Amino acid sequence: MSVIARDRLNLNATAAAPALAAFAVCAAAVVVSASGIVATSAGVDQRQYHWVTIRHFREIFPRIDIVDVDTATGPLYHLIVAAVSGPLRLSESGTQFSASFFAAALAALAVWYAGSVTEPALRVLALAPLLLSPYFWESALWMLTDAAALLFAFAAFAMLLRRGPMDALGSLSAGLLLAAAVATRQTYVWSLAPAVALIWYQHRESVFATRALRVQAVAVPALVVVVGLVSLWHGFLPPRFQAMNAADRSWLSPTYCAAVTAVFFVPISLAVFGRIRPRVSTTLSMGVGLALPALVWASHATAGSDNSRRGGLIWESIAHTPLIDGRSPLLTVLAFAGGCSICHVLVNLDRTTALFVAAGLIGLAATMTVGQQLYQKYFELPIAALALITLCALAADGAIVRRWPLVGLAVLQALVTAVLVARPVIAAL
């Protein structure tokens, strides 16, 4: 067999799994959209916000108005979907299916990224936190911006992590992808934290001017988008949503972020337990520090009256357990476990990945303090993506010494998805 033939076969083998993942997402999306099923909180958001905004852009084309819109998110997703569905005159169900391509591309990208894990079973376990998430599937089956924003951010992350120290063009390319993520969901400004930290660390041996230029190339495009949106909206959200979504601050965000992270990082911590152990004092300090806000602020998803998306594993569990003066002992315990597991996992990672993941979690927790809505869907997909990156790095280092905790995590994600997504879809058929 010739070298060219072998190269083609290797390329086909590499592309087969991502293509199959994308096909599976599209197949599920076409069944749901063709059946006219609009269910779950994602269906509510599609009908009330995203489809209305996409239709608005189609009707006023070629004029563009991103101020007087019926969505609280950035406009890029709606503009792209409108540009595709408008000329084709697609109905709501047809537009719903076309929008699934973002989730299909995200699935393909995640499978490609996990291709560095040589053992198939371990590769599947690395992908499970993200691709079995109910919020991934809601964004795949209905019109939501979550998968699109994560697609752009994860593409930038993959470039930064897989290609090593970036040159000027690579840094700018990653920066433009992050700008697209922020233009899709402005809360994805959190993604700048791990990107900037990684670029700064990768160029630690370069002169200061080079480091600064690389950081600017990564950060400036997204910051320009943020400044532009804030200038147009006179706030971090479109005018119609500023009173509802940004009226208060969520000082509980670091604690809630740690609690959601616990769902993913406690199993990962157990999977590597017995290798490198951090100092007990450091571990306990991080756990206590992240749990402390749960003892200070009341355990509420939001200060408002919006109940449609308060659910999710964490808040539903809190709702069925006792409160002490409005504070949840369960949230406190989960945040403590999350802090301890984060500390344990980070010391088992290589320095580059550890810095990236730590900066990502800090950036996410800090960003979500700006609004008043601590919904699991806003945290889970970013954390699941960081868990995927973590698992791939640990697998590459041979650090995973037991599989059963990761199997348990995959089963948990599958069960939650079955309850929150599959059951309503089946009931609607």
Helix-residue proportion? over 70%
Order of helices and strands: HHHHHHHHHHHHHHHHHHHH
Structural class: mainly alpha
- How many separate domains? 3
The overall strand count is 0
Structural Rg: 21 Å
Distance between the termini: 51 Å
Approximate strand percentage: under 5%
Average residue pLDDT: 92
Are there runs of 5+ residues with pLDDT below 50, and where?
1-12
User: What's the overall geometry?
Assistant: globular
Described by strand count, sense and barrel closure, the largest sheet is: none
Number of helices: 20
Question: How does the SSE layout of this entry go?
Answer:
Layout (H helix, E strand, L loop, with lengths): L2 H32 L5 H21 L15 H13 L3 H8 L1 H13 L6 H12 L2 H8 L4 H17 L5 H17 L7 H11 L5 H26 L8 H4 L7 H20 L7 H12 L1 H4 L16 H7 L9 H20 L2 H17 L8 H21 L7 H25 L1
Task: Please tag this protein with its features.
single chain, mainly alpha, 3 domains, 0% strand, disordered N terminus
Can you put this structure into words, describing what you see?
The protein is an all-alpha fold. It is built from 20 helices and no strands. It has helices spanning 3-34, 40-60, 76-88, 92-99, 101-113, 120-131, 134-141, 146-162, 168-184, 192-202, 208-233, 242-245, 253-272, 280-291, 293-296, 313-319, 329-348, 351-367, 376-396, 404-428. The longest helix has 32 residues, at 3-34. It starts with a helix and ends with a helix. Residues 1-12 have low confidence and may be disordered.
